[in-house]
Amino acid sequence: MDLKITEALRGYGVTRATGASAEEGGNNLLGRAAQDFAATVRESEAVATQAMTSNADPHALVEALAYSQLAVETAVTVRDRVVEAYQEILRMPV
Description:
Helix content: over 70%
Number of helices: 3
Number of strands: 0
């Protein structure tokens, strides 16, 4: 499965090379990740629709479902980490 690690590394390299701040690079990377997630879900839905009308290969359906499962698990993990970090910040003494 393609985890798009090379794209993340390339984005990091572009951020470092252009001298963009960490915040700008993070927002750009996060935005691209959200777009990739939406595209993966759209593609999986299209393949599932084709499979229901008997126009898609069953192997393509299983592959699309695996990609969408990985995308959802990744999104949930990122969300959990963000919530955990927020809760940690709230526990800090002022």
